[in-house]
Every structure is written in structure tokens, then in C-alpha cells.
Amino acid sequence: MLQHTFARTAATLTTFALSANAVAEEVVENPYGLSALWAQGDVVAKATLLILVIMSMGSWYVIFTKLAEQSRVMRYAQTAQSNFWNAGDVRQGTDGLEVDSPFRFIAEKGLESAGKHTGLLGSINFNDWVTMSIQRAMNNVQSRMQDGLAVLATVGSTAPFVGLFGTVWGIYNALVKIGMSGQASIDKVAGPVGESLIMTAIGLAVAVPAVLGYNWLVRRNKVAMEEVHAFGADLHAVLLGSAESGSAQK
After folding, report:
1. Which residues of 3-30 are buried (b: 16+ CB within 10 A; e: fewer)?
2. Using one digit for the tens of pLDDT, what is the confidence trace for 177-231?
3. Which ranges in the chain belong to alpha helices (H)?
4. For residues 32 and 38, what is the distance between their CA atoms, to the nearest angstrom?
5. What local confidence, expressed as pLDDT, does residue 16 receive?
6. Are the C-beta atoms of 136 and 7 separated by less than 8 Å?
7. pLDDT over threshold 50, residue 248
């Protein structure tokens, strides 16, 4: 009885192993997958696939780098909020900020404008001159924070069409091969057409993260720029107050 049980168990395991091997062989030898698409595709199909891969890599690079940059800006905002306004004057507060901080850049531009209100620039109202200088600095910061977002917008808007082009080209080649062979059976049509439709799926897979990343980063940029504009407005008021105090003392 025990030997009979062992025999049945061994037979079951053997059957299971054979089934698993058959499934593995079926997966490996799938003629309609990405490997078949690359192996059977012509130069145009391979170039289209490479373009989609490059677009995907570029969009993910922009997403991660901009996310890190925005995190640094928010950290710089916290440092400016806690250290800058507790300094004795604007110069000391500026020196206490990080060298690559956008808030230090704005503060230095404000100090520079306050110190250069001479000559022809002296004919401009001091309030207007400081306002313009700080606004230019904030616009410069905003422009730098928007770097790379155009890449995401371009990928999100063009990747589906690039994938669609690959699909159209693949279906065209598939129909040409079917017409030349004179066989229109389902196995002859399903393979080439299915491989072509993979291009559309890849295009959507590239475009969706780019669009979502763009919207997310734009929202985070808005939050960061609110901190920058608040700092610029407060700095403008401090510089005007300091100038008025200096004039009153004279």
C-alpha cells in the first residue's frame, strides 16, 4: 500500500514537472512577444521602439531630478524662514543662507539694487527700482524651476502618436507579407497585427507617466513659487524700511 502511494505521488510530480516545462517552453517560444517584434521588425520599427525607450528614460529622469530640486527649494524656504529674518540686517541674513539657495540669490539681487541706486539709475524711484530688481530675480528662479517640464509635456503629447506610427507601419508591413504569401488565415494575421499593436501600448505606457509627472511637478512648482514670492515681498518691504530709516537718520 505504501509503495503504491509513493508511486502515485511520483507520477503526479512527474506530470506536474512536464506541464511546467511545457508552459515554460510555450512562454519562451512565444512568436508574438516583444522579442519577436524586435527580431522581425525592420529599421523603421526598431527606430520607433528606440525613440519610445529614449522618451521614457528622459521623462523619468526629469521627474526624479525635478522632484529632488523642488525638495531642496522647500528645504531652503524653511531655512530662510527660520534664519534670515532673525539676522541683524539683510547682509547678515543673506550670508547665513546656503550658497545655491534661490532665496540667497534673490536677497543678493535686492541688496545689489539698493546699493546701485546711483547715476542714471538714481533718477528712478527707489521703490520702483528695488521692485523691478527683486521681480527679475524671482522670474529667474521661476524660469530655472520650470526647466525640464517642457520635456514631459512633449513626451506626454507625442508618445501616443509615435506608438501609433509604429502600429500603422507594422500593420502595413504585415499586410504586405500576408498579400505576398497569399494566406489570410487567423494565425497569419493575428501575429503581425498583434505585434504592431504593442507599439500603441508602449506609446501609452510612455505618455501616461509623463503627463501625470508634469501635472504633479507643476503643482509642486506652484507651492514652491508661493514661498519665493512671499520672501521677495517681505525682502522688498525690509529694504524700503532700511532705506527710509537711513534717510531719516541723515
Report:
1. eeeeeeeeeeeeeeeeeeeeeeeeeeee
2. 777 766 666 666 666 666 677 888 889 999 999 999 999 999 999 999 999 999 9
3. 2-28, 34-40, 43-83, 90-95, 102-115, 126-145, 149-181, 186-249
4. 10
5. 44
6. no
7. no
Q: Identify which of 105, 108, 112 has the alpha carbon closest to the alpha carbon of residue 144.
A: 105
Q: Which three cell numbers stand for residue 234?
A: 517681505
The percent of residues in the chain predicted with pLDDT above 70, rounded, is 71
Cβ within 8 Å of residue 32, ≥6 positions away: 190, 191, 194, 195
The CA–CA distances, whole Å, from 112 to 105, 145, 190, 212 equal 10, 23, 70, 40
Give the count of alpha carbons within 13 A of 227, CB side only.
20
pLDDT in tens, 70-117: 999 999 998 888 888 887 788 888 888 888 889 989 988 888 887 776
Cβ–Cβ under 8 Å, residues 223 and 132: no
Give, in degrees to the nearest 5, the angle at Cα 23 between 20 and 25.
Answer: 110
pLDDT digits (tens, 9 = 90+) for 171-181: 777 777 777 76
**8 A C-beta contact, residue 137 and residue 105:** yes
C-alpha cell of 144?
530655472
Is 119 strand, coil or helix?
A: helix
The pLDDT, as a whole number, for residue 62 is: 94
Contacts of 59 (CB under 8 A, 6+ apart): 151, 152, 155, 156, 206, 209, 210, 213
- Cell numbers linked to 158: 507625442
